Amino acid sequence: MSDSSSITINGNKFSFDSGETLLDVAVRNHIDIPTLCHLKGATPTGACRVCVVEVEGAKSLVESCATPASNDMIIQTESPKVIASRKMTLQLLLSSGNHNCAIRGSDSGDWTDFQIRVQQEDGSTDLCPAWGDCRLQDLAYRYQVSGDHYPGDEDLSPMERVNPFIIRDFSRCILCGKCVAACNEIQVNEAIDFGYRGASTKIITAGDRPLKDSDCVFCGECIQVCPVAALVEKDARYDARPWDLKKVKTTCTYCGVGCQILLHVKDNRVIKVTGVEDAEPNFGSLCVKGRFGFHFIHSPERLTSPLIKENGEFREASWEEAIGLVAEKLTHIRDSSGPDSIGVLTSARISNEENYIAQKFTRAVLKTNNIDHCARL
Amino acid sequence: MAGLAAAFGSGAMTNTIGDIAEADVFLATGTNTTENHPVLSSFVKRAVKFNNAKLIVVDPRRIKLTEHAEMFLRPNLGTDVAWINSLMHVIIKEDLYDKKFVDTRTNGFEELKKIVEKFTPDFVESITGILSEDIIAAAKMYAGAEKGCILYCMGITQHTTGTDNVKSLANLAMLCGNLGIRGGGVNPLRGQNNVQGACDMSGLPNVFTGYQPVTNKDFLKKHEEKWGVTGMSDQPGLTVTAMVPKAHDGEIKAIYIIGENPLVSDPDLNHAEECLSRLDLLVVQDIFLTETAKMADVVFPSVCFAEKDGTFSNTERRVQRIRKAVEPPGEAKDDWWITCEIAKRMGYDMTYENAEEIFKEISELTPSYGGINYPRIEHEGIHWPCPDENHPGTPILHIGQFPIGKGNFHAIDYIPPAEKTDDEYPLYLTTGRVIYHYHTGTMTRKTAGLNERSPESFVEISSDDAAAYNLEDGTIVNIASRRGRIKARVAVSEKAVNGTVFIPFHFAEAAANKLTNAALDPVSSIPEYKVCAVKVES
Ligand code: SF4
Ligand code: SF4
Ligand code: SF4
Ligand code: FES
């Protein structure tokens, strides 16, 4: 690689491809620059200014997520100037909303009043629902700042709870715009955008209507990208603290896209689903069924015991009895009426292994090829 | 399936989901992608919005995808062969086809050329209702693409002419040389998560895994040896659409159903119910007591996807892991365990430690899965064919050549749909899905939020038709066909075209398939769900 395409970050030289931003080069080389509004695959907005870095010779700090790398740039990612700027940015963000986690800070004495007000607005006695899973909180710890340096914002839009899936909590929105980018540039559902101006700026649907009356299709991409607790799954709000959860990577059970998903499990129950961000085919995206359609797993209507019908009524039976009965009848029918008097219907919803076993059983044990599945249907 | 296999030698999606991003023209037909394959639709929408790709939607309904389309063509139901032939007519006449591809990689061009001769845009306008200038413009747009991607789904296959429709799309793609290239291809979108896998794993009456014909002596012998049995059948078995009616006349005496609910999904439902009730033995294995399970003599409780290990193969032939996350309820068991236990009690030992052990046996018997194993797909799945452990998998099929050597053009004539409207049944009915539900609804209808968004069945109708038949938006009406009747709520919608109504098929209590037509495609045995004649009365 030629010297004509390299930059220096924190004293080390790195090559870059044309079109790469400073952040891209840093990420590729495992240099950690914090971000809040940056969304992979979307146009950079430069909205949060947390990712600023110092470029030698430049008058002011630049946003690394929006600045293309150019030859011979010399960059500092954690200089005193950078750190001071990030601290101020974070403090402003923290004081502008209901960020009632431990980072709020208790030195100024308003913490208790603030907690009580937020908990009332929130209808919960818990700390912020994103506590433990919040980029803002992480950064506040990293840069040792709290939110009580600036006067708080009392005039916040009320929470939207009127749809079945998503709680929109404007009191915690930091206006980073990631949800807007996710909706417009990743999913292209074009349901939300920035609305109003200045201090009244808010993320809105067309006509500022509730999501349920908008173009929103509840894919939940916006929840997944939101760095704070402004967008949260309704069902899992206050229930999904990361330290209580086991995450299991698997494949969505609905359509043929086969999105990779993470099941978040607490006490042997799936309580939320997110998309796997670093893998094909979906790179984190899901649809409403994959993200929210998991309640059937723990439905009280699930079958829990073999059933045998007697005189038109089902009764519970042991595996031993039910399997014995079926094996005996199948053997009898196969031997008296011939193998081709039995048919097996397998399914596009069970696994490859299970389909394989079903056809092996049909061909090797029943000795017929009468096997099909309903996919042609 | 059958259509693509005849043309190319393989029935699967030719390209990948990721590839879609690279197409410069899309032809999407019979696929309501934003509702049925939402995440895949985003790839299309992004390509249109950010890469200047052009989208042509051909669909009887004004589906959401049309909002992103450069052209929207609205054919009469069941006239797909006609408009596809007409596109080819224009492309050949204007000399826009890929001569090199046609010469070197295909058979049967002359016959194709002859048959499409009569499908002039004017003639086809009279069949399909698509304006002749739109046909010409769409033909030029698709032929002008460097990378043209065809996407289709059940709107193309669920017709008595479904196989013909698919072959026609294959013709079109070959004519323009859009195979074996990134961003191109003919891409059937699988509706259910493991349709591809169920076919690959030979949940089919005529083949072993990986599409090895049961009639082939060598394959039969290979399986008998591996499984340690003799006397397996070398005759293709019955398809589901043949099996169910044979239950009626007593030729089929027992049916073992694993994870399916044909009593909502079957065409001509009233008849299917009657057939199943005549069986000596009906065994159903499922996670819920479905409409079908209720009729069973014995019901086995099985585990759902979150409670088991295994693999699914998605619509782009990618074999991906599923992993156990929670314990199953009560005594529910893995489907494979249940089947193996029955086998053992019938005197044949089928014992496996776990799903991975079964997968190893699959790889040994299935050349296209030969190089796939669990460790390799731990992070990301692999596209079959993947013949050995050093093979990276095959994202794009048919590069350089087809598995059958040259691709086959099929000269196909237009056959009108099996059922016609008349004075008594003046409207066409077509069926499909909505975004909030899946298949027969047994899973999605257990999530309150999905029900809140989409609580019940509806009949989507144009405002003109609603006025003509005196139907008021939001009222409950009767919909009747020559086979049955159901009730549903009227939804007057811009999506509907005059003369055709739409009903989703998720709702057992208003099962659209009580109305649909069991007339079958002669090759694929897919019933004609997409066209039947109905009347709607308040
Ligand atoms: S749920 Fe999806 S469609 Fe709705 S606002 Fe969020 S990103 Fe947009
Ligand atoms: S809702 Fe979340 S993602 Fe959207 S602007 Fe607010 S903080 Fe950012
Ligand atoms: S999340 Fe949606 S698009 Fe993805 S596989 Fe599941 S149903 Fe299909
Ligand atoms: S991440 Fe760069 S400005 Fe927000």
The level of helicity of chain B is 25-40%
* Number of H- or I-type helical stretches of chain B: 20
CATH class of the largest domain in chain B: Alpha Beta
Choose one word for the global shape of chain A: elongated
Number of E-type strands of chain A: 16
How many domains of chain B? The number is 4
Please compute the radius of gyration of chain A using only Cα atoms: 28 Å
Discrete helix count of chain A? 9
Question: Any idea of the CATH topology of the largest domain in chain A?
Answer: Alpha-Beta Plaits
The average pLDDT score of chain A comes to 90
Overall number of strands of chain B: 23
Distance from N terminus to C terminus of chain A (CA atoms, Å) equals 56 Å
The CATH topology of the largest domain in chain B corresponds to Dimethylsulfoxide Reductase, domain 2
Protein architecture, described:
The complex is a heterodimer of chains A (377) and B (538). By secondary structure, chain A is α+β, with helices and mostly antiparallel strands. Chain A has four domains: 6-78, Roll (Ubiquitin-like (UB roll)); 155-237, Alpha-Beta Plaits; 242-298, ADC-like domains (N-terminal domain of TfIIb); 308-376, no CATH class. Chain A has nine helices and 16 strands. In chain A, strand 3 and strand 4 form a beta hairpin. In chain A, helix 2 crosses helix 4 (135-143). The longest helix of chain A has 19 residues, at 319-337. The model of chain A has no long low-confidence stretch (mean pLDDT 90). Chain B is of the alpha/beta class and 538 residues long. Chain B folds into four domains: 2-189, Dimethylsulfoxide Reductase, domain 2, CATH 3.40.228.10; 191-229 and 304-390, Rossmann fold (3-Layer(aba) Sandwich), CATH 3.40.50; 238-301, Dimethylsulfoxide Reductase, domain 2, CATH 3.40.228.10; 427-537, Beta Barrel (Barwin-like endoglucanases), CATH 2.40.40. Helix content of chain B is 31%, strand content 18%. Chain B has a six-stranded mixed beta sheet with strand order 17-19-18-23-16-20. Chain B has a five-stranded parallel beta sheet with strand order 3-2-1-5-6, sandwiched between helices. In chain B, strands 9-10-11 form a three-stranded parallel beta sheet. In chain B, strand 12 and strand 13 (318-322) form a beta hairpin. The longest helix of chain B has 14 residues, at 80-93. The radius of gyration of chain B is 23 Å and the shape is globular. Chain B starts with a helix and ends with a strand. Chains A and B meet through strand 10, strand 11, helix 7, strand 13 and helix 8 of A and helix 3, helix 11, helix 13, strand 9 and strand 10 of B. One iron/sulfur cluster binds next to helix 5 of chain A.
